[in-house]
Automatic annotation (TrEMBL):
It holds the Pfam family Glycos_transf_2. InterPro entries: Glyco_trans_2-like (IPR001173), Nucleotide-diphossugar_trans (IPR029044). This is Glycosyltransferase 2-like domain-containing protein. Residues 25-150 form the Glycosyltransferase 2-like domain. It comes from marine sediment metagenome.
Length: 234
């Protein structure tokens, strides 16, 4: 949980962002599972205080999700809705959102299976701009286990615990400059593999490391992976 001391720092950061018209592009990839998508979006609406444009990229959902998303677009809850003509896989969807949303100074990508916690985006943008790396909230208990098992050094900055790791971070937040340095996710690793998380994430983290771009988790954020919460994925 983010401390009150750190919240005060983040509130000042948010205030400066509003005064200078800074925003993040918050990109959410959806495919069916409306009940999870709704949970993800509601957590964003409730807990995201840093200024953002919400860009939803739908991978040709067939369960009624598209009409629900259109309703949210009509009510201006979603700023931009991109409907893909078929399911191209998650990483193609990520790239579509990143290419559209790169007009903002910071970019975040989420799957439709994440519950975000208060001040998560402010914290991630704060450190993405200062560390010039890929920054993420840990969403699964196993990530914290890896940090402990590998004895990753943890540092405190403005009251928040940051750990630099040697693998990819999910879901990443980055500045526009970092995106321009690393580039987009690979879409040619294998179409079957691209239906699942992990393969292109790993390659992206390796590419970042080769370019000298660090990968970091903010341990005080408390975002959750819905399948893990429901016991469907350990």
């Amino acid at each position: 949980m983010i401390s009150q001391q750190s919240i005060a720092v983040l509130k000042k950061y948010i205030s400066r962002a509003k005064k200078t018209a800074q925003k993040a592009s918050l990109i959410v990839i959806t495919y069916n599972r409306w009940e999870w998508t709704e949970m993800t979006l509601n957590s964003i609406f409730k807990n995201t205080f840093f200024p953002y444009d919400l860009i939803v990229v739908d991978n040709h959902s067939t369960d009624g999700t598209v009409e629900k998303l259109k309703q949210l677009r009509r009510s201006n809850k979603i700023d931009t809705l991109i409907l893909l003509p078929k399911n191209h896989g998650v990483y193609v969807g990520f790239n579509v959102g990143l290419k559209y949303g790169n007009y903002n100074s910071c970019l975040s990508i989420l799957g439709n299976d994440i519950l975000v916690s208060p001040y998560w985006l402010a914290a991630c943008c704060f450190f993405a701009s200062r560390l010039k790396g890929l920054v993420a909230p840990p969403t699964q208990a196993k990530v914290r286990g890896w940090v402990t098992r590998h004895k990753c050094p943890i540092v405190k900055y403005e009251g928040m615990r940051i750990v630099r790791i040697t693998w990819s971070v999910v879901p990443p937040v980055m500045t526009k400059a970092t995106l321009q340095k690393i580039g987009y996710f690979r879409e040619d690793i294998g179409k079957r593999e691209l239906s699942f998380y992990g393969v292109a994430d790993t390659e992206y983290g390796e590419r970042a490391a080769k370019l000298g771009v660090g990968t970091y988790y903010i341990l005080d954020t408390d975002c959750k992976h819905i399948p893990c919460m429901l016991g469907e994925l350990q």
